[in-house]
Amino acid sequence: MSNLETRPAEQVCEAGSAAGGIELLDARDVPLGGPRAMTVRRTIPQRRRSLIGAWCFCDHYGPDDVSSSAGMQVPPHPHIGLQTVSWLFAGEILHRDSVGSLQTVRPGELNLMTAGRGISHSEESPEGASEHPRPPTLHGVQLWTVLPGESKDGEPAFEHHADLPVAVHAGARVQVFMGTLRVAGETLVSPARTWTPLVGAQLDLEAGASVELDVDPGFEHGLLVDAGEARLEEAIVPVSTLAYAGPGRRRLVVSAGEAPVRAVLIGGTPFAEDVVMWWNFVGRSHEEIVEARADWAAQVTDADDGGTGYAAGSADRRFGRVDGYASGPLRAPALPDVRLRPRRRPGE
Predict the structure, then answer these.
(1) Could you tell me where the Basic and acidic residues compositional bias lies (predicted)?
(2) Which of 223, 226, 262 is nearest to 62 (CA)?
(3) Count of C-beta atoms within a 10 Å radius of residue 148
(4) How high is the pLDDT of residue 1?
């Protein structure tokens, strides 16, 4: 998914300090694109905490009725330095990218795109057909992870995983889509490629149920609640809130109250590198972001290549070209007027 904010702020992201208790992070509503935009609830990055492990972006959307609308329509746009992690609770999204991928993702399946030095992609609600009508509801999360410095300029790639490990125990169902997690003595390992130690999982709890997760004490974790009222350790976590638990724990207990709970768990080792995020780019410096924007702008035009919005020869440039989407690519927003100074971590 693209960040379609017209004036995205440049942010220098940094790992949080280890928290003794549970910290609750409220979401902010962000409209994506125009007056009829789909609104997402964004919990990271934010001023209080910009990273959880390598996870640097968390948008939570839906349930949205797409039965009588175009649904999700995100034109081709670029990325650098990150992985996009697409995870659905309901509906379908069709992904196209500049490395030639064409893949529909459905609930319980993972679309994972590694941007490396540069990739572009589009996402849309499929049109559907009489034998396979489009699902009427769209609901899920869009997550990004930061690639570490030694991998951020690598080759772009795409993976789709439809068979992901699941554990069911005492009214709880846990499906791991990234990394490794131990549940009730069973170790669940996702086949998806990761570049730093991390975990991503969906938790579904029946009313009154709880699940004990054995976790790496070096990880920090976040629990995003999609439905029901969850409890993480001693803290009650409302819907659309992200609960943060700092490193040092060997187990996490998630419980449901009187209603079933659905939540997403993310976590990883605190990311040691300073990260600059702007629009759809993740880099290490202001100059790196400026260069990426200029490279994308050189590929996007209204004048050449038959009016498609792509400059001639775009397929061979840094971000490649997405074919098959109904309209041209997104133009990059204007850069901020000022250069940000990197923030310092607590104690530095």
Answers:
(1) 120-134
(2) 226
(3) 14
(4) 55
244-286 per-position pLDDT tens digit: 999 999 999 999 999 999 999 999 999 999 899 999 999 999 9
Q: In Å, what is the CA distance from 74 to each residue of 25, 32, 67, 176?
A: 27, 9, 17, 27
pLDDT grade for 15, boundaries at 50, 70 and 90: very low
Alpha-helical (H) ranges within the chain are 286-299
Strand-pair partners of 232: 235, 254
- For 221, the enclosing helix (H) or strand (E) is strand 220-227
Which segment of 134-138, 261-265, 289-293 scores lowest on mean pLDDT?
A: 134-138
Domain range annotation of the chain = 11-268
Sheet containing 157-161: order of strands: 28-32, 38-44, 55-65, 137-146, 82-90, 110-114, 157-161
Residue type, 328: G
pTM of the model: 0.90
CA–CA dist 142, 3 (Å, integer): 10
Give the span between the Cα atoms of 346 and 348, in whole angstroms: 6
**Nearest of 171, 156, 163, 182 to residue 205 by alpha carbon:** 171
Query: Per-residue pLDDT tens for 194-228?
Result: 999 999 999 999 999 999 999 999 999 999 999 99
Instruction: Please give the structure tokens belonging to residue 198.
Output: 């991390």
Q: Tokens in use for 257?
A: 């109250």
Residue matched to tokens 């549940």: 183
What gap in Å lies between CA 247 and CA 245, rounded to an integer? 7
- State the fold for domain 11-268: Jelly Rolls (2.60.120)
- Kindly report the CA angle at 170 between 164 and 173, in degrees rounded to 5? 25
In what helix (H) or strand (E) does residue 120 lie, and over which residues does it extend? Answer: strand 119-124
CA distance 255 to 70: 37
